[in-house]
Amino acid sequence: MRQRNAPFGRTLCAMVTPFTSAGTLDVDGAARLATRLVAGGCDGLVLNGTTGESPTTTDAEKRELIATVRSAVGPAVPLVAGVGTADTRHTVELTLAAEKAGADAALVVTPYYSRPQQAAVEAHFRQIADATGLPLILYDIPGRTGTRIAPPTMIRLAEHPRIIAVKDCSYDFLGTQKVLAETELAYYAGCDEHILPLCAVGAAGCVSTIANVVPGEVAGILTAFDAGDTALAAELQSRLTPLIEAMMASDLPGTVTTKALLNALNLPAGPVRAPLLAADAETTANLLALYEALAAIGCPP
């Protein structure tokens, strides 16, 4: 059995935030969805991330979601709270609130839109790490933020005792390998198509969006890989490719496709908030057909 540094578990789900038909936070739905995900194979949950519609939820809703899920899943399941904003002061406030609400770690994205220089990026993360007792997961997703966490910056930040992990959506395998070679940071694949490739170079696991609907199948990739059965792990990753493409590589955000499929399965999700728009009937039918094809095969042993 291969051992890896996985401080928050291996299979983390970037959980959607369920809303009622009226558009308010669905507390009961959030509790039911979180419980289902843990029972289905997720050993950690990421709340209030982009998939959880963090740009359009209030600070109070973010706190309530963390407290609700903590109560639902108990103290043993790692909860990671997305706290990233374009404002360092606001990010510190959200981090402290998440800690008080019961989060085990904070996921902090690079400040977006303002495109700070690397020295400013580093200072931003250090200020947040210095302000909290929570461990931090740095979120590197330049396609959304406009700014990389450059490998030299990441290596310097790894020296901070509370900066211990990375959610990697950089699409830079060489840069990732450089950081893995020089630090003890735990890397989590943030793109579902990269789960197995990143694990092959030393990642700890994944923060998966499609795990909202297929948690067991996602966990199966990591279970097979850890057991040394790379052929099975590759087969399982390949098996998920059509669903990954439909949910994550279409013209629609992953939040939209995930909620469409969850709603079609009568699972907690509800509407998306503007400016997002719901998926149309044709898209939803295609997603459901792909899900049913996977369900017919069954979860890996």
From TrEMBL:
Organism field: Streptomyces bauhiniae
Listed InterPro entries: Aldolase_TIM, DapA, DapA-like, Schiff_base-form_aldolases_AS, Schiff_base-form_aldolases_CS
Phylogenetic placement of the source organism: Bacteria, Bacillati, Actinomycetota, Actinomycetes, Kitasatosporales
Gene Ontology cellular component terms for the protein in this record: cytosol
Keywords for this protein: Amino-acid biosynthesis, Cytoplasm, Diaminopimelate biosynthesis, Lyase, Lysine biosynthesis, Schiff base
Principal location: cytoplasm
Site (Part of a proton relay during catalysis): 50, 113
EC number of the protein: 4.3.3.7
Positions that bind pyruvate: 51, 207
Name assigned to this protein: 4-hydroxy-tetrahydrodipicolinate synthase
